[in-house]
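Troubleshooting entry. Yesterday's outputs looked truncated, so today I'm pasting the complete records for two proteins to confirm everything comes through intact. If either block looks cut off, that's the bug. Protein one:
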Amino acid sequence: GAGDSLAVPAEAKANAVIEAVVTRLAAEHGIDEACPPSRSISLARRRLDADPARAWDLEDLARGVGVTPVTLQRGFRDCIGATVAGYAQAIRLGEARGRLTNGRETRPLSAIAHAAGFASVTAFVRAYQRVFGETPTRTRADSVRYFDGDHIESG
């Protein structure tokens, strides 16, 4: 009915307010204050961040932070907006991109992919291209050109 059309904008506004409050609390006090059940999430994030190349097992990670895999997965979705695997992959891709944009990294792409925790170059290239919109080879080539002096400041 007519009341249904008003419910969607009201819900969207409420969600926007909640998101703004959580974002502000997280910025001012840390994610544990913004999302109290997230102590396990913070611990899991620290573990993932400390060893991004490790092939993490969800059950082991959850057990290590004192929750069930379902609770950990739900907490990641609610507090971070990603699955545990999605978060781990984002960390790995960030590590690899850092190496590729370094300008001094000379190892082959396969070594960079492996060091970042990817089992195969194909999986790495697909994930990298999906997230960054270009191939790792393109990123590296652009970075090498930049560091070799082909970059000219405009202004």
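Protein two, checking that the full record survives here as well:
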Amino acid sequence: RCLSDWSSDVCSSDLVCSSDPEDFLARLELAKLLITAAPAWQALGREEQVTARLQEALRCLDWARARDPNNQDAQLHYGWALVHLGDACTRRNRWQAAVENYTQGLAALRAIPAGARFDEGVDARPIISRATSQMELCRSHLAKSAAALNQNLR
């Protein structure tokens, strides 16, 4: 079935459990699959699924990065997942959480050497550029909210 059709009772980590739970590549590929599917869940209006699956991807990537801290593919997808999570927070007007996710995602992406390319042809630079502009938008919303609150307190 299509990932976007999965019901909430299906745990995608079951895919990893069917193989060796210590399989680095299986966890990394599962995380990539979950990240890639996030826009489909978002298009269906299933924001809770977007967030849940991105958090699941981040758990897989945390595991992978702990075992191989120099793996640039895991680093790229970790940053990418955090940027998608920031996007999900932005869609819900959770500006501070979005800024935190974008900040962490940018730190991970900026740690990748310039010009590094990956199997999928992914380049970190466009993700960094988009995350930077989105983070500035969120900071602008936070500043406006703070100004409005200060105005109301007067």
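Both blocks look complete. Sanity check on protein two: The longest helix spans residues 124-153.
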